[in-house]
Description:
nucleotide-binding, Rossmann-like_a/b/a_fold, purine biosynthesis, nine-stranded mixed sheet, ATP-binding, Rossmann fold, alpha/beta, disordered N terminus, 21 strands, GMP Synthetase, Chain A, domain 3, EC 6.3.5.2
Amino acid sequence: MREASSQNIPKVCIIDAGGQYTKVIDRRIRELQVRSEINSPSTDLSLLKTFSAIIISGGPSSVTAEDAPKLSAEILNLNIPVLGICWGMQFINHVNGGQVVALEKREDGVFPITVDTGSDLFKELPETQDVLLTHGDSIKKVADGFDTIAKSGDIVAAIADSNRKIFGVQFHPEVDLTKFGKEIFSNFLNIAQVPRVFTENFRDEECIAEIREQVGETGKILVLISGGVDSCVLAALCFKAIGKERVKCLHIDNGFMRKGFLFNILYDLLQEPSQILCKTVDPEQKRKIIGDTFIKLVKIEASRLNMSIDNKDVFLAQGTLRPDLIESASATVSSHADVIKVQKEAGRLVEPLRDFHKDEVRRLGARLGLPASVVNRQPFPGPGLAIRVLCRAKFTRDAKLYTSILPIRSVGVQGDCRSYSQVACISGPPLWSELVFLAKLIPRICHTINRVCYLMGTPIRDSHFPNDTTPTTLSDYALSQLRECDHRANSILKKHSQVEKLSQMPVVLLPLHFDREPYSTKVGPCQRSVVIRPFISSNVSTKWKKKYARFPGITRLLYDLTSKPPGTTEWE
């Protein structure tokens, strides 16, 4: 039996003010077995009244700016508990007559705060705790009726109107960098008296019931299976819902998979788009070309299986999760996205995992009986290694760059916005505590930098950092280099039993030629380097350095020290 009706279980509303962590707030609330729903600031007040509590997210705008989200101040008069985060706290203070001003210097990073443990929001928590702060505005005058319940030095870090059960925090309790964030959310839900009934068993049954209702008694499902966790769990869920006889799984190798990743391959996508891709350096165009060719072959093979996606009785299953919208945002739309849109509009797109986060999908897969080797597999981007080769069209040199700034850019998130900024590189002895400190400090001071790396191996002087790039495209040679480097890195992880201790570890090929002889600067760079982004012991890192030292065409191994934010998982 279902534990509760989907319609009548209590829900928390998350108002999305444009911050990069809105989906993470959603995840945290669901981890506490409470259903959450994300809505825009323009949501009608009559709908908001149906929720048991409201959380207002952070956002990139100033509360006093013309482009600030248009959120009604009446949201605070619904007699519903409210928690404002970052921008949300500033909004609460502003509309109640308080003053918000711009800081002379932004706070971006982990800082200790002092909290009032007498407040229900910080009940049974330590008086001093580390939190993530990412803001340029701050409260100068606290609104009447509110108390300051936390401070970061002289800066107001949290406020409360306990009588109305309205709270605000300047920091981000939703991220792992805030040590007691989950406990703060739990305290807020207790204040709001929200019962914890949104359990995993309830959600499993809800997914299966949804698939059966959507597909009906005669419909069939085509699952595009990549071999990753999401698509494998999706296939298993569809099997359980309507039986294996009505489900077909299709895997197409896009030509950019990891070394040794073998599947029952029907097509090798690399044979189709490689000529175009070998001339493409723009990351969005790479994604589009791969997506367009992929969906072309899907249509061909699906028709051969008598599962044409144009057939009204065929439903297309996709392992959509509740993704981080900023990190996965793309302005270039591929044919793949167009097909998904058409299927969705026709009501023939099956997305039972759309309310799940990655860790929840892993647990669901285990409950469905999938082996640990599948459910613990590290995530791998759809375009594969194609976006882990940073490409350059030609030999480039920028004499204006500082020698410690690399002549490449990477994707990141700064001030609640997506950024495409420069990469700093540090060379010297492996003093890890100092390196981590600098990796946090540099992006805070230099807002044009969103990623900091450590150059492993023999230290080099500033004048010996590369200020040019090796021409790099998605050639067979570049891909074979990256595939072998990725294989070696993961082999060392397995050897030292570290795979399950990491959520994922991208290995990225950089068009950077370190350690060139003086005479070679006249003819340009010709080799590359590799950067890894793990969280691992220095002992294993040393073994990686030795392993790559003997790899042809790879000059150096770099270690990505950047936290998230400002860095993102992938570099492109």
